[in-house]
Design a protein that fits this description.
Shape: elongated
Radius of gyration: 28 Å
Number of domains: 2
CATH architecture of the largest domain: 2-Layer Sandwich
Oligomer: single chain
Order of helices and strands: EEHHHEHHEEEEE
Largest sheet: 6 strands, mixed
CATH class of the largest domain: Alpha Beta
Helix content: 25-40%
Structural class: alpha+beta
Strand content: 25-35%
CATH topology of the largest domain: YaeB-like fold
């Protein structure tokens, strides 16, 4: 015959079967619950759909190496082409910044389409620029090109 322990909290009886929590000190139960919740959230974070294969900052800085090896191609968005024309930045300068630029970690953005990484540096003609690119499996998409020193008049939509 099972033995029941009855505890009365705020006039509501709670029955706990003998042996159910007998081996656990009752003061540790909230901590065990928090630990279980934290482990569950950790598991969710690292096992979400689409998480695998995302580009990291380490992969982003290696994009130029892949370009040089022929593993990736550079694709320029229409917006990037327009900004390059307005700001007098050519493809050689974009490639130069992809090779030598420094990732600005404060400007990295993540969206449903993936991450965009801004690389900043000086071009061979002295322009201080930021090239925002989005690495993908077989290509590196140049999203936009920004001259950090000069505010050029541009009619890009």
């Amino acid at each position: 015959m099972p033995y029941h322990l009855t505890v009365q909290i705020n006039q509501f009886p709670i029955k706990i079967k003998k042996g159910y929590l007998a081996n656990v000190n009752k003061k540790y139960i909230p901590y065990i619950g928090l630990l279980a919740a934290a482990l569950f959230l950790y598991w969710i974070k690292y096992n979400q759909r689409g998480q695998k294969g995302r580009v990291t900052v380490n992969n982003a800085t290696e994009a130029y190496t892949d370009l040089k090896a022929g593993n990736k191609t550079i694709v320029y968005s229409r917006h990037a082409r327009c900004r390059m024309d307005c700001r007098h930045i050519d493809e050689s300068e974009v490639k130069e910044i992809l090779a030598t630029g420094i990732v600005n970690n404060n400007k990295i953005e993540h969206s449903d389409k993936g991450a965009t990484y801004p690389l900043e540096g000086k071009t061979h003609d002295g322009q201080h620029v930021r090239i925002v690119f989005a690495p993908h499996e077989n290509e590196v998409v140049v999203v936009t090109v920004i001259d950090l020193d000069t505010d050029w008049k541009c009619d890009c939509n």
